[in-house]
DNA sequence: CGGTATCCCGGGTGATACTG
DNA sequence: CAGTATCACCCGGGATACCG
């Protein structure tokens, strides 16, 4: 039985598409991209360029920065594969995987109260507009 | 039976003191101060100046900004009391109170893994220092 | 007391170009 | 492919002063 390194299915390029302005998703971890990166690593290690796909519009610089920060904080492990073609993998550490728990809780809450969040925000904007 | 408006105990000026560098508390809601404000409102309505106490060093401007944002998003309700002395109260809305659930989850996780978080961070810093 | 009005600074973020 | 280097901009946030 061969035992090739676990390779999860490719990421859905639209996994963050419908929304995520993070204005409405009220929980943030680390910097702007950190939670999204964590989510991307949920199903297994990912390559640098692989991560760029669902992270619409992220620059190499920002991605590097976020990854380095996550690495420094012990949430993500970076491993450089040797071989002809360059290949660097990023994976969740145990600690990083643990973060997904509370993160899921937060996301679940947001999804459950999505309509209320939208309504409240619209009402708030209307009030703000009326005041001026 | 008189029914005076509920007034919770005064806030502990040191309720955020030992730590909270928010670098290690990996969950953020809204801006820099939002989660702390939410926590401050947990036990009931608070006045503007009352909030400034545990929020060591926050400026009136920042507090106003954060509160206005929380109000716009429907997490906090502002009520201006009439009377001789000026008095403005901020209280959690139902939606805002709901946020405390996931927030508690996040805080609990952080507390549970505090030592690991510290260790991982120190290790990360050491590695970073070694690389340069 | 409960804010506004200004000024200002640092850095987080993006755009672009370049590299091993 | 997996980054680095550089510039440049915006704005969150603090400091200070003032107001109804």
TrEMBL record, chains A, B:
Residue ranges of domain HTH hxlR-type in the record: 20-118
Single Gene Ontology MF annotation: DNA binding
Matches recorded under InterPro entries: HTH_HxlR, WH-like_DNA-bd_sf, WH_DNA-bd_sf
SUPFAM superfamilies, sorted: Winged helix' DNA-binding domain
Claim: Transcription is one of the keywords in the record: yes
Signal peptide limits: none
Keywords assigned by UniProt, alphabetized: DNA-binding, Transcription, Transcription regulation
Name under which the protein is recorded: HTH hxlR-type domain-containing protein
């Amino acid at each position: 039985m061969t035992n090739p390194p676990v390779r999860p299915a490719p990421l859905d390029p639209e996994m963050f598409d419908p929304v995520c302005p993070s204005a409405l998703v009220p929980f943030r971890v680390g910097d702007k991209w950190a939670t999204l990166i964590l989510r991307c690593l949920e199903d297994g290690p990912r390559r640098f360029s692989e991560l760029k796909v669902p992270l619409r519009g992220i620059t190499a610089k920002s991605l590097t920065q976020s990854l380095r920060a996550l690495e420094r904080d012990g949430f993500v492990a970076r491993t450089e594969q040797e071989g002809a073609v360059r290949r660097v993998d990023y994976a969740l550490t145990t600690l990083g995987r643990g973060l997904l728990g509370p993160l899921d809780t937060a996301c679940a809450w947001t999804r459950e109260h999505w309509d209320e969040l939208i309504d409240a925000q619209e009402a708030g904007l209307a009030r703000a507009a009326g005041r001026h």
